[in-house]
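Sat 14:20. Reprocessing the chain from the morning session after the first attempt stalled halfway. Input below, unchanged.
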Amino acid sequence: MKKLDRVALASLPTPVEALPSLTTALGGPQLLVKRDDLTGLAFGGNKTRKLEYLAAEARAKGARMLITAGSIQSNHCRQTAAAARKLGMDCTLVLVGKPTLSPEANTYLDMLFGAELIWVPKPERRELRLKEVFAAKHAASRKPFLIPYGGSNPTGAAAYAYAVQELAKQKVEPDWIVFATSSGGTQAGLVAGVALTEMKTKVLGISVDEKAKTLADRVATLATETVTLLGEKKRFKSRDIRVNDDYLGAGYAEMGNREHEAIHLFARHEGLLLDPVYTGRAAAGLADLIRKDFFKKKDTVLFWHTGGQPALFADKYRTGLLE
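Finished this time. Tokens:
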């Protein structure tokens, strides 16, 4: 597997921990967790791995500014803003939502890092506004580098192919890896990494916002492009990609009873914090699948924790979690 240029941003390797109390509580297979909430940069998360390679690419192109987009509580944007400052770059973020007089959680941290925030009212306008902002910064000779939504391109996804290598070096080969999937980069990297390391592990993404067919198509294409970038040959098809979209609930970033229960399950059985949008929804799916006997009792299931805990401090979620 070809090695891409990287800049050191993450604290690696992240640990793999057993979840014995939760395993007993759910009466299911042996549960492990891969702690990518401990990657270190600005409260950590999965995007830090991607940013190591994306930022290296930006540096190689002489960039002085990172530009990306996300939701009002975007973990990706928070980590991008921190990475930019760590590397001596400016940062502009295009956020979906409305500006508030009292920024909280991730948005508060974006501002603390000194990122320029540009607001767009609807998700459908995000990509167009992102391109407009990039063009304006380029015209002003700010030397911007555009990072796609979620850092989900072959360079970003490659970070998770390398993460599978890291897991193999930790001598952990679970029967299943379960995690939150949305823009598809993390899943594409995991799928590519498992294939290239010849693991027998099954990769199951719990969608937080997209229909399974849409996401499977995207991940298959991106996984194929990632393998090509890494100097290998393998073509993935949609049928090779496992996505479960049964847990979309009320929609993206809307916490329901399932997320509420999952967050409390992990907190009160393992002292482990999840977030309301991504890991909370994925853990809710994991718990439900265990109760439905989707996994075999003898299986080892690794929950890949992608971070996101700052969102717990947003009023939208905090009050509901204490009810």
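Residues 47-151 form a domain with the Rossmann fold fold (CATH 3.40.50.1100).
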